Amino acid sequence: MTLPKYQKVIFYLLLTVSAVVIFAPAVIAFSMSFMPNQDIMSGRIIPTTFTLDNYVAVFDRFPLFNFLLNSLIVSVVIMIGQLVLSSLAAYAFVFLEFKGRDILFFVFIATMMVPFEASIIPNFQTIRDMGWINTYTGLTLPFFAMAFGTFLLRQSFKQIPKELKEASEIAGIGDLKFYLTVVLPMAKTSLVTLGVYGFLTSWNMYLWPLLATTDDTTRTVQIGLRQLQSQEQLNEWGVIMAGAIIVVLPTLILLFLGQKKLQKGLAEGALK
After folding, report:
1. Predicted model pTM
2. How many domains does the chain have?
3. What is the DSSP string of the chain?
4. Mind telling me which residue stretches traverse the membrane in this protein (predicted)?
5. Potential cystine with 71: which of 36, 119, 220, 265 (Cβ 3.0-4.6 Å)?
6. In angstroms, rounded to a whole number, what is the distance separating the alpha carbons of residues 209 and 251?
């Protein structure tokens, strides 16, 4: 359906206003990160002189590189764990015949209705009793099992013709080889979508790393950014904004690189 010309104008005008409202804080923060303190305190939005002193100060005053490395390790490990377990579980729910398969799947999906806050205390007690406080294992392992990821990949795997599975059985190909050589390549878009989603969610975690760590050796960048904000005075907003830009930069790069795959995967998931 084609919209009339005046409706198109109103539509794009609303989109432009919404984009400005949404991105204005990010643009202001980016601009403030290059401002000297005098410009910030005077209320300027555009700096009179660009300076990198705020970025130098972030790394000089705070172990930000260590926090970035911790976040990268935690996010990558969680992403890989979710991809492996979710794809294996989805394969079992689609290609393996066993009694109560559909009922078990619906029970598994029902866990999506349980908020994370309801399970955080049992998870914390588990990693504490196992001695996993201040370890990458304690930060990552509770997030490997993901009902949403299993649901997304199951919907993708169901589009694979069952005839391929029957032909592989006739050819003597086992489940593992069929999973690796046929299923995963055909579901590449959904796997990329789930990987990007898992990485971004893990990178932005705050509450769980705050509970599971007690020192700076394994703390992630979100905790480090909060510590930076609490340590700086009110007239050091340029340093804080520089730290925020550094923290958000990897997620923006990943989002832009995987934007097409992410949009395609979400569209396919909605259609299925």
Report:
1. 0.85
2. 1
3. -PPPHHHHHHHHHHHHHHHHHHHHHHHHHHHHTTS-HHHHHTT-SS-SS---HHHHHHHHHS-HHHHHHHHHHHHHHHHHHHHHHHHHHHHHHHH---TTHHHHHHHHHHGGGS-HHHHHHHHHHHHHHTT-TTSHHHHHGGGS--HHHHHHHHHHHTTS-HHHHHHHHHTT--HHHHIIIIIHHHTHHHHHHHHHHHHHHHHT--HHHHHH-SSTTS--HHHHHHHHHHHS-GGGHHHHHHHHHHHHHHHHHHHHHTHHHHHHHHHHHHH-
4. 12-34, 72-96, 103-124, 136-157, 178-200, 237-257
5. 220
6. 18
CATH number of the domain within which 177 lies = 1.10.3720.10
Where residue 100 falls (left for φ over 0; alpha for ψ -120 to 50; beta otherwise) is left
What was the pLDDT predicted at 50?
A: 83
**Is 61 part of any domain?**
no
Query: What pLDDT does residue 70 have?
Result: 94
The verdict on residue 27 lying in a domain is no
Q: How far is the C-alpha of 184 from the C-alpha of 176, rounded, in Å?
A: 11
pLDDT digits 0-9 by tens, 124-148: 999 999 999 999 999 999 999 889 9
Domain span at residue 262 reads 68-271
Does some domain include residue 141? yes
* Alpha carbon distance 19, 32 (integer Å): 20
Does residue 175 lie within any of the structural domains?
Answer: yes
Residue with tokens 């084609």: 2
* pLDDT (0 to 100) of residue 259: 66
Average pLDDT per consecutive 10 residues, the chain (272 residues; last block may be shorter): 73 89 86 83 77 87 88 95 95 90 90 86 93 94 91 91 88 90 90 90 92 90 82 70 87 75 54 48
